[in-house]
Here is the input.
Amino acid sequence: MNTSVSLEDPHCPHDHSQCVSDALAAAEQVCERAGARLTALRKRVLELVWQSHRPLGAYDLLDTLAREDDRRPAPPTVYRALDFLQEHGLVHRIASLNAFIGCASPEHTHQGHFLICRNCRVAIELEQTLIHPAIAEVAQRMGFAVESETVEIAGLCAHCQEAA
Amino acid sequence: MNTSVSLEDPHCPHDHSQCVSDALAAAEQVCERAGARLTALRKRVLELVWQSHRPLGAYDLLDTLAREDDRRPAPPTVYRALDFLQEHGLVHRIASLNAFIGCASPEHTHQGHFLICRNCRVAIELEQTLIHPAIAEVAQRMGFAVESETVEIAGLCAHCQEAA
DNA sequence: TCGATGGCTGTTATCATATAACAATTCCCT
DNA sequence: AGGGAATTGTTATATGATAACAGCCATCGA
Ligand SMILES: [Zn+2]
Ligand SMILES: [Zn+2]
Ligand SMILES: [Zn+2]
Ligand SMILES: [Zn+2]
Here is the structure.
């Protein structure tokens, strides 16, 4: 399993079906270990979230589901699936966009930190950066017990800067 | 003008009316310089945002306005005021809470980074930490042009950890 | 002082996101 | 097969934010 393609640069043309199948395979494993059930619905929602490297809103997912099925599911259906996927680290929620994006490394639990391009809307998840240590240091100094970190950096990706 | 009380520890009992009047005075100055009009409504909304060190939702502010006046203003009224205040750096929006909080240092434009206690709901704005440099370094390395930073760290403040 | 101009506020309606509550179904284990 | 728990369906509603247009008011030049 190789997720490096999607992590390095989701802009560059790449075999995205590989991203999707890697993500689904990783999800199977994570759920297996956790004794959780990756049901057909949950798997489907995860697959839809992975349709691109752009965060998608719950209602976008609902629309897509409605187009595939003939019966349009109600919001709780997709929100529950998203809740499950979040709990198991398979997707991250982007608070500043009210949207969700697949996680390429769900094996180890971690906070999602993102660079989000306002132009192409691609979100790149950061891993192993100095941001987490910096947060830990500040929190330590303030006696604050961190439970979750929302780090969403908006701007223009390298690709879109060139275009402009 | 001394804002250190509110910055050091908003939990500790402190002369909060001083926080409010400092904030309003700073706001007057900022608007003066920018040639912007701090109208009665905008000032009132800013004052309401500053009623505590907790982020408040737009509809909370509307409720308070409704209680003070006899006529309940409509949502756009308060959202427009909040937009103005944000543009001039007088309040920050907390994306993870859909809420707003006053900024104690609006003189220099900056990103709001926060520690947010899930128990007492107090939000402490961080300044001059290693977080911003860490973000800048990562962005630089990725060729990403940062335009805004959302950093919201949730957990338990020192005060609430003791209580528990 | 008058009226034009642009910025601010009021008002109505609507959109967008998310959840509560309860019913029906399905899965899993015995 | 039967019981209990987890999952999904369904309806209604809560919560947060904005579009569109109308009216008002401060400011400034004529
Ligand atoms: Zn891909
Ligand atoms: Zn881009
Ligand atoms: Zn205070
Ligand atoms: Zn606290």
